[in-house]
Design a protein that fits this description.
two-stranded antiparallel ribbon, 4 strands, alpha+beta
Length: 92
Amino acid sequence: MIQLKNISKILIALISILAVSCNADDVDNRPVLESVSAPEMTLPVTGKTFVLTENNADNKADLFKWNPATYSHDVVVSYSLLMDVKGGDFTN
């Protein structure tokens, strides 16, 4: 019985410490990012389609270039280029 009382007291003390140590200051002090410029695809021209076959598999499809996005603070930006077959939905 004494051990159960000690465990209960320790548990209540731990929960109390956690409740007091949580505050909204960390959330309030985060910087707000504002987009200065959006990324813009420069090459290839919008709407261009690529037909990839076994015959042209060794050829370079195209060069992809874009102007990177800029923000009001220094951030790490990651870009991905996705391709899918005609009529595909990018699930694979």
